[in-house]
Amino acid sequence: SLFLGTSLTLMSNHWLMAWMGLEINTLAIIPMMTYPNNMRNTESAIKYFLMQATASMIIMFAIIYNAWMTNQWTLFQVSNEWATTIMTLALAMKLGLAPFHFWVPEVTQGIPLTSGMILLTWQKIAPTSILYQISPSLNMNLLVLLAVSSALLGGWGGLNQTHLRKILAYSSIAHMGWMTVIVSIDPSLTILNLLIYIAATMAMFLCLNFTSTTKINALSNLWNKSTPMTITMMIILLSLGGLPPLTGFMPKWLILQELIVYNNIATAMLLALSALLNLFFYMRIIYTSTLTMFPSNNTSKFQWFYTSPKSTSLIPSMTI
């Protein structure tokens, strides 16, 4: 159902079908979020459902308003300015852009790592595809405002966090800001950024799932569990931060270049500075996992030396 919902939104050119795909997508992930049945999972699932249902209702209102004003239901033609503005705000709510970002860390923190991975990667595809398709008629000023506030709040919010899922949630908010700012200038860069972000975030979540780690302080013993895993996580985090030799630098560089070409120098500067905030908390994770050693005596058993755990799902994402 999750796959079907996203596919339906990607393939449809009728507003009603695209909306139906978003609804299927929302409903399909709820059982996955509540799978180990406990209070925290249920609470997070309800928060997620309420936000998504509200956003879906607003999208439906914008669709009907646009159809009433323009007499057509085609996805590519949203010519009414009010309908476009309402649609943008509703999609921002679905994607978790600031100022509608409050649900993202809360929901991600309350659900298991696997569900969190799906929430922060796969669930972003359908709303982003709608933004991509209606990008020519979007309001540039509104997009820049949403994007810059997301990038700044995504960096600022992650600074005082110790839970890795919350840090990745704030990282997601910041990356969504980068994708949104360029969608009306060069939509293909949004897709490139999304693909690279999905690959890196999936690899990061699978690393955490593999080592059963959810807090920063638990990372100090990671070298004992798996030394290659520690190096991999370091490279993934530096790539997410956007350091030059790594893949994550490419979309940031291209986005900043396009913004400067279109004379959005202030926006480019704010985004570049917000990336430093993200890089700071990535570096803190790297410092804990690679440069500190868990206090232990010499007789402690080296786990990686005695066991060689295998993870089939981890290898492809690490390779990507």
TrEMBL record:
One of the record's GO cellular component terms: mitochondrial inner membrane
Catalyses which reaction(s): a ubiquinone + NADH + 5 H(+)(in) = a ubiquinol + NAD(+) + 4 H(+)(out)
Subcellular location: Mitochondrion inner membrane
Biological processes, Gene Ontology terms: mitochondrial electron transport, NADH to ubiquinone
Chain ranges passing through the membrane: 16-36, 48-70, 82-104, 116-134, 140-160, 167-185, 191-210, 260-283
Record-linked InterPro entries: Complex_I_Subunit_2, NADH_DH_su2_C, NADH_UbQ_OxRdtase_chain2, ND/Mrp_TM
Keyword DNA-binding: no
Domain NADH dehydrogenase subunit 2 C-terminal: from-to ranges: 279-320
Primary site of residence: mitochondrion
UniProt keywords, alphabetically: Electron transport, Membrane, Mitochondrion, Mitochondrion inner membrane, NAD, Respiratory chain, Translocase, Transmembrane, Transmembrane helix, Transport, Ubiquinone
Domain NADH:quinone oxidoreductase/Mrp antiporter transmembrane, first and last residues per copy: 12-275
Uppermost EC category: translocase
Membrane topology: Multi-pass membrane protein
Pfam families: NADH_dehy_S2_C, Proton_antipo_M
One MF term in the entry's GO annotations: NADH dehydrogenase (ubiquinone) activity
Domain of life (superkingdom): Eukaryota
EC code(s) of this entry: 7.1.1.2
Family stated for the protein in its record: Belongs to the complex I subunit 2 family.
Biological function: Core subunit of the mitochondrial membrane respiratory chain NADH dehydrogenase (Complex I) which catalyzes electron transfer from NADH through the respiratory chain, using ubiquinone as an electron acceptor. Essential for the catalytic activity and assembly of complex I.
Protein name: NADH-ubiquinone oxidoreductase chain 2
Source species: Perameles nasuta
Lineage of the organism: Eukaryota, Metazoa, Chordata, Craniata, Vertebrata
